[in-house]
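[audit] Reproducing an earlier prediction to check determinism. Same input, same settings, fresh worker. If the tokens differ from the archived copy the diff job will pick it up downstream; this log only records the rerun itself.
[audit] input (219 residues):
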Amino acid sequence: MTSSQTSKKQDLPATAWAVLGMLSFPGERTGYELKKWADSSLRFFYWSPAISQIYAELRRLEELGYAASARSGPDEARAKRRYAITGTGRAALAGWASDTAEAGPPVLKHGLLLRIWLGHLAEPEQLRAMVGEHLERTRGELAAVREAMARAAEVAEWAFPALALRWSERQHLAELELGEALLADLAELAAAGAEAREGAPAGPPAADRQGRGDAPTPG
């Protein structure tokens, strides 16, 4: 491997390793097939790529010698480029997958919770509706995870992807439990707010207190 290739290897993002990882299972795959597999597996716990991103990573992997591609034969109606992992790519992927120092902590960016955090700017009914929609969406995702688990269970080589999907099933179940608890918290907060408004003496509005530096957190 040249020094240029070594530098590129060191700069590879995790998404490139994920694409190479999909190629590490038996068989050759087109970019479209990799996209379908990512949407029915990887997206439940890591990443939902655009097809353009998959092809960009495939080109990078080919440049490094980690993947190789070939056009399909004349017997197919439309020529397709199929990709496969190389021996060099498998060795590099095995090294990356075994390096626990590169795993890093999980990253949570919960759009619903960001809106709950700004709940003082919304109506209580709107917040409850958003949580309800989130719960419905999560139930749909849970059903999709379970479909993917059923497919993975039919293929012996997918034993470890099946473990990742089982984790995702548990995560979605936990998300449903957290969402139901959030609805209960919102109801409790609304009830407490109603009681406070009924019995509270007149005073400066909350916005005025905040303007005087009465922050909700120390610092």
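[audit] rerun output stored. Observation attached for the diff report: Strands lie at 67-71, 81-85.
[audit] end
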